Amino acid sequence: MADMAANCTSCGECVRPCSFLQHQGTPLTIAQQGATDRNLLAAYGCSLCGLCDAVCPEGLSPSDMLLGMRQEAATRGLTDLKKYAPWLNYEKLGASLFFRRDLIPTGCTTVFFPGCSLPGTRPDAVLELFKRLRLMEPTAGLVLDCCGKISHDLGLTDHFTALFGRLSKRLRHKGITRILTACPGCSKILRNHGEEFDVTSIYEVLAACTAPSRPASPLKVVTIHDPCPARFDPAQQAAVRQLVQSCGYRIEELPSHGTTTRCCGQGGMVEGCVTSTIKQESGVIAAEAAGRPVISSCASCSDSITTATPAGHVVDLLFSKTDFSAKPVSSARRWLNRLKLRCARLT
Fold first, then answer.
1. How many helices and strands (H and E) does the chain possess?
2. Domain spanning 2-75: which CATH class is it, in words?
3. Is it true that domain 86-207+333-343 has CATH number 2.20.28?
4. Model's pTM, two decimal places?
């Protein structure tokens, strides 16, 4: 807070695109209010998406300040965890032995880590991605687990450290040095907290082996939503676009893309305290899309956006599933899908 209070000029660049800051005031205003209980708890209204960081002319990181405020609130016992029970239970179950799986063959140093949302919504795509990876790298492994992003973003530092520590220790013990991710959120967590690993998105690996194709006719136009965890990951963004084009689609960019992409509404579990967040934010993206199907590399983003406009995941295009009006998968079906992957026979 001290750094923000000393250096934020309240220029308003971060306030204009952000509904949270429009309500709370500039980062300077928030910092000047100090570490009161009320001010700390207000940070749970921020999606931690990092758009404020991207547009700050002073190079400041309001999102880091707000995450720190969440951490302080949790340390003081101020956070009402009952509001976030659905997310925390999801994380707990996803990291349990019932759904966790390590398929690590002899000589394996690279594993595919698909995260939580993609296995729950598109288990067949996860299997197909793994098969393609095995063709390129026969000793590649598969790890089904949770990276702990939910606890991290809620400010539950001790719980996150323990959960992530168990995961990273297990992988190190088994000789893993490279992790290929499908979830942008996992990519960010693993890079920031697993410095010993080389973390790359599976989309970059696939794009490197995919021949570019000519753009299709205007009848096959889509637009791309860059997930906010990939905001500062141009390599992943470029790979997704190359894969989309290789499937015969022409891309028309959203006004908000790349470093200035918008959060779909799921970031930071804001829905736990502001129940209209997903509807509001996905509606903004839908308005920018203007009827064009929206493709994302994040399954959670796809689910949010499809409630407002036709949307899909890049793997849908890769595997010729283009029903952009399909409804999100139910919670029960997600767990069945993850169990299917947990028990799938793989060689």
1. 18, 9
2. mainly alpha
3. no
4. 0.94
